[in-house]
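Cont'd.
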Amino acid sequence: MTSLLLTGIGSLVTNDPARGDLLGEVQDAALVIDGSKVGWVGSRRDAPAADAALDLGGRAVIPGFVDSHSHLVFAGDRSEEFEARMTGTPYSAGGIRTTVAATRAATDEQLTANVSRLVTEMRRQGTTTVEIKSGYGLTVADEARALAIAGQFTDETTYLGAHVVPSEYADDPAGYVELVTGPMLDAAAKHSRWIDVFVERGAFDADQGRAILESGIARGIQARVHANQLGEGPGVQLACELGAAAADHCTYLTDADIDALASTGVVAGLLPAIEFSTRSPYPDARRLIDAGVTVALATDCNPGSGYSSSMPFCIALAVREMHLTPAEALWSATAGGAASLRRTDVGHLTPGARADLVVLDAPSHLHLSYRPGVPLVSQTFIAGRPV
Amino acid sequence: MTSLLLTGIGSLVTNDPARGDLLGEVQDAALVIDGSKVGWVGSRRDAPAADAALDLGGRAVIPGFVDSHSHLVFAGDRSEEFEARMTGTPYSAGGIRTTVAATRAATDEQLTANVSRLVTEMRRQGTTTVEIKSGYGLTVADEARALAIAGQFTDETTYLGAHVVPSEYADDPAGYVELVTGPMLDAAAKHSRWIDVFVERGAFDADQGRAILESGIARGIQARVHANQLGEGPGVQLACELGAAAADHCTYLTDADIDALASTGVVAGLLPAIEFSTRSPYPDARRLIDAGVTVALATDCNPGSGYSSSMPFCIALAVREMHLTPAEALWSATAGGAASLRRTDVGHLTPGARADLVVLDAPSHLHLSYRPGVPLVSQTFIAGRPV
């Protein structure tokens, strides 16, 4: 096992609560990577020796982004739907079926190449852990295929057979729920760490959602929920009732929803690139944080409602549009994402953590929102290795 | 002179009005670069032979971005001011003085290195022409120095001695106008293609602005104006009265302002990254376009009110926040910028134009707004050469 000393770090974000401030920042810092893990963190002048050293010339280092919500296994392009939406056609969940048709028609190689392209793009933008959902197959074989492909790129695979009721079950949604909780789950289970359901008008109601999530929980697959995106609804309460790891979207919440999130510890996943690309109101992130809810920021990268793979873009939106401080936004995009995925090995840079980190072409993390749209990621390390 | 055939272009934006649609798009296209210029444009199947060929595999090609408004000659960083603003401290023009102090204290080498870094960053994001202003020196020597440095990177240099009244003239603004129109202009003239003034409460009024611009015009230096950014005011009318090339910002306009822009042909420069980073309302771009005003999109990259160097980010904001169509936004970021700078050789890809073009990692230009925040520029060519 070799060690690498990163020195000349202008500002280092550790997310270590023991350091006092939210981000556990260290100025004029150094960090030692021992093999795949963080070995040492501190002030540059106290740095130990290592097998090799790299002077970062004052650049900032942050934990790699943990993107806890994405839909990368798909084929096709909905840029024309986007263009129409920007000139007045509202977004509806029904558009998902367009991608389902294209995905079913694609070969394994085409789907794999598309995921590979997008994961590479994410890594170039500093994402070191990404959750990937199925949900554009919606047959037993196509969901299992999507999850097997996702599993080539991440451990954080999510079975989302319950993304929308496919056209062929339009007259028999109960039959589709039976499929999702029966044969489709049987085929998906071995590839899935998570099970998810889109609880929304036009998708699944609370009873359907409960049946679907409970079928997964009974198999040892943990729950997460698409909740309250397009209007108030039962998604958040269902997530809290079942002890899901996260309720994602949270665009329309009642006081009772916020109380439930705060008291159960279910993470609220906020996906502001979706509000950007659907021209919708943003979630009230301040109300959530002020109520003590744990917030994760994620891209929700998908070809329909929002096709950004950029965590820095989400941070800039979180600051500008959702009134998070830059520190809160970065925390939510790293430690918050890790909480959403119930991971303790990522989302922070303390000794023993996986050495997932990002070197910025900037002196501090503030530049992620101070310089919106600018590609500031100089280098991404995953498990101690540059990618 | 060697020629290069770019073929396999999924979609080519020419901005050629003879092709009918706003962007003069050609599907399944090819383009020949002859030396520094565009030699031929058309359908791939009609492409002529060339000395070399490059197959772009279905990627889109667009004209290079023409960023008609930036302030790159400065030192220091105002990320903490940005952070304070995002948590409630409003933006004021007075913050410019912070950067003036840092810029005066910097060496030529430091300033040059900073411009070089930012121009490189812009080129990586597809900008092939950039206007650069002075305005953080505000002494005879410091303004001349800033313009000489800017001139190492662009022909589009703008003398902005009238950015704000510097502290040492706080009690004598009339004396500062005399300096700007006298000895400072003498020193700046040989380095300047443009003269500009910030007409705004807290900066310069209409009479001061007129005196400043007329002093430049009398020397053959063309006028452009910072107008109507923080409130309604006389800037746009002054730009129209004097035949300026552009009135930039245009955030607060009266009906009479819009009529004046439309009837005089003064280009309205819209800088939405500034509204993003100052959390201000966006200009009503639709009203301008529907009235027949020529609109340019630009970054206004500067360390105070908005530090984005990204034209793709401005396009995404223009679509989402200002209701431009994706085609209008791209036109404004290319042909519109060229109009703002009174350039006929850039901003389009027709035979004879300078071969300034961008290859996108995307099948069409729609992805610039469909995929916000994602670095999609695969390759930038300036005057026929990859950069």
